[in-house]
């Protein structure tokens, strides 16, 4: 398929809005410093705002797909991309909710490293979706490859984190809570990998 490069398609701009909200939410998630119990509620509410905005943007793109006869990429590919970006943001909000519910404000180094890799994935997602909006498909694959590399690093990180948790954590309740948070973070990175696959599908079908 050959696309005109004169203007950005509405559907691509809507996908870019979703990725921009995800990027902003991911940066806030990374930068916010939880130092004491009172920080947890503010952190959760702000992440809930990003998550709610993401839901609204996905609803809008579904309406656009239903109402548009001809789309620049296949409907199912656009929806797949939008849904998995939204699930990444859902994962961030879920993690913030668990910090709040479990009253965890002593964030350990494994969580911090997870957050760093996760944010790197999100930046790559945004950069790739921006390329879609500019109709520069040939440049997208490098970002998908980086997302997969970061996800592989997080697989190893989760194993190290859980191994050390079982070796050193004597409080069984805390052990269960920390393990659940590590798994939420890893599942969120897995959603980033699904975004990468969706991006590669778009490239494969339209480049």
TrEMBL record:
Residues 133-202 form a coiled coil. InterPro entries: PhoU-like_sf, Put_Phosphate_transp_reg, UPF0111_domain. Keywords: Coiled coil. Pfam families: PhoU_div. Gene3D superfamilies: Phosphate transport system protein phou homolog 2, domain 2 (1.20.58.220). It comes from the Bacteria. PANTHER family: UPF0111 PROTEIN YKAA (PTHR37298). Belongs to the UPF0111 family. This is Putative pit accessory protein. It comes from Clostridium homopropionicum DSM 5847. The lineage of its organism: Bacteria, Bacillati, Bacillota, Clostridia, Eubacteriales.
């Amino acid at each position: 398929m050959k696309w005109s490069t004169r203007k950005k398609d509405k559907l691509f701009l809507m996908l870019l809005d979703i990725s921009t909200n995800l990027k902003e939410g991911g940066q806030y998630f990374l930068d916010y410093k939880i130092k004491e119990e009172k920080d947890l509620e503010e952190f959760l509410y702000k992440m809930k705002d990003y998550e709610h905005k993401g839901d609204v943007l996905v609803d809008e793109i579904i309406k656009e797909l239903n109402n548009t006869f001809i789309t620049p990429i296949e409907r199912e590919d656009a929806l797949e991309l939008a849904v998995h970006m939204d699930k990444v943001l859902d994962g961030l909000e879920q993690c913030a909710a668990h910090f709040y519910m479990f009253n965890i404000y002593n964030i350990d180094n494994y969580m911090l490293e997870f957050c760093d890799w996760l944010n790197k994935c999100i930046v790559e997602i945004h950069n790739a979706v921006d390329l879609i909006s500019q109709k520069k498909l040939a440049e997208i694959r490098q970002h998908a490859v980086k997302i997969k590399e970061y996800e592989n690093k997080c697989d190893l990180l989760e194993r190290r984190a859980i191994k050390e948790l079982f070796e050193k954590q004597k409080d069984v309740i805390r052990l269960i809570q920390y393990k659940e948070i590590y798994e939420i973070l890893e599942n969120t990175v897995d959603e980033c990998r699904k975004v990468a696959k969706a991006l590669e599908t778009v490239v494969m079908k339209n480049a």
